[in-house]
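Every protein is a chain of amino acids, and every chain bends into a shape of its own. Below is the pair of lines this work produces for a single protein:
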Amino acid sequence: MTKKEFVNAVAEKAKITKKSALTLTNTVFEVLAESLKKGEEVRILGFGTFKVVLRKERKARHPRTKQEFTISAKKVVKFVPGSQLKLKIS
């Protein structure tokens, strides 16, 4: 599902205009990103938890040349689905 399709589905389900749904969607994503940037964990009851974790530096190997190299440590976003979401998709 693309962002456009997502916005259209939100507009239809909430019975609001597509413009309002786009504004709402962008605002939710913006607040989520700002919270994660601050290092905060975002818990949405019934959906799941978004958090930033530090991925350690690690060794890797190029599949063709077999040459080893190091992938530096970095922050990544991790999503842990909530139990209600798990039940809905099974």
